[in-house]
């Protein structure tokens, strides 16, 4: 396995400083508007080579708009953007030649066989036929699709289509792999298969950039992530650092009858560092969940259901935005 | 294993094919096994030729066209040649493009690669032309076998049909980028039918009264029909160049619009 970034063009991969890996994505004050609607409202990014970087946020946070700008298929409305050291406004084809893109919706070629999907896609990159063919076979093996090679796309399950889309995005051996909600809509088993594949790619040194509204996905795959809300970045860091900074160690979840949560919250808000009221439960942020639960019982409250757990990125998001990630 | 290695090897071994040919290759792979698909395009003008040119033609005495006496079948055949080039181009550049654009999201995937909108537009038009060209050669052979070709100029009728195909593919693809639903395609049919019937395909332009004749002379299929007819009957003059320029210009304008519209729709 060679370094993911080793280009003949010396201007193509500038270094952030004299040390450290080069910056593959650099954005300053990046904005995107569609008419009156501002989808991305001035964000700064710096993603070095080899990192697995995530955008975490609910639907409509501006993740996909940002991803499309990074993929050099959507011109920024304002701000500066450099992908692989190049300006997407002037070097779109050169940038896209070195990207792998897995869009949110499958855009597989339904008129071609599964193997031809890979081969033809390789040809779009200008790769010779023999090269496309050998890479296609290699990718089919890696993503466990070789038995389906001659079949049409419709015969694949949702998880397999996703795998094929990711396989397709690797046909040009990209320096930077962009994954827009790679596992949305998949069943848990298919998600785990995919995570395994992405983790292997990461180990091979591929720079991954992904969006997700699943906090477990972000925790599993991302070295570093930004939390986006309403077109802005509201927090940035490693999953662990974010949890440490914006949440407590543990959370005690209490479920009472419908409509009681608001009034009960006032009776126990001194038991935790912070209490969040959700329509269906109370979240008590505390360093010792069991201890807090015992105190709740001491006050004579009998919740219908109880859960003591560690803090997750979901809690970070809730704290920062006052809303949950998945509606 | 090494699924991902350096981009170096990739850039060193680039194929020499131009980007638009990659689109052509994709379409070839999709259609290489569908024989019916190829047969229909070939049969359409042949059936018209037999029914109208030969069948109806028996009731029509040979008449004078551009100063020479031609049989009705020899008059209609080049009309069918041009009209089928138009029909093929329209079919390829409307329904099929709309499906790829709106439903299959093919171009979204293609534009995520180094391919540009102009490569997509050129590629799709080239594909339509290649297909149309094969049909034209086939039809010309049928004309030859039936003794309906009067001049060596007829060899140039094939590039002439390609011009017709280019002009109509480009403009119809441009129109397709504005379509909002399948219903909008009724408008295409509404436009194509009168062109097919009244572009001096089945009867000479001299049958039209004054002003109407001028209107017909300005329509695109008429330029194609008259060009093909001049070539297969050997009545080529400098005036034929007008048709060539007309069709080239129409195609180039369409191509420019398609590239811009694909950009506006997909690279937002």
From TrEMBL, chain B:
UniProt entry tagged with the keyword Membrane: yes
Signal peptide: none
GO biological process, one term: response to antibiotic
PROSITE patterns linked to this entry: ABC_TM2
GO molecular function, one term: ABC-type transporter activity
Recorded coiled-coil stretches: none
InterPro entries referenced in this protein's UniProt entry, alphabetically: ABC2_TM, ABC2_TM_bact-type, ABC_2_transport, Nod_factor_ABC_transporter
Superkingdom in the source lineage: Bacteria
Keyword Transmembrane helix attached: yes
Membrane topology: Multi-pass membrane protein
Cellular compartments annotated: Cell membrane; Membrane
A GO cellular component annotation in the UniProt record: ATP-binding cassette (ABC) transporter complex
ABC transmembrane type-2 domain span: 36-265
Family that this chain belongs to: Belongs to the ABC-2 integral membrane protein family.
Transmembrane segments: 36-57, 69-91, 125-146, 152-175, 187-205, 235-258
Keyword entries, A-Z: Antibiotic resistance, Cell membrane, Membrane, Transmembrane, Transmembrane helix, Transport
Full protein name: Transport permease protein
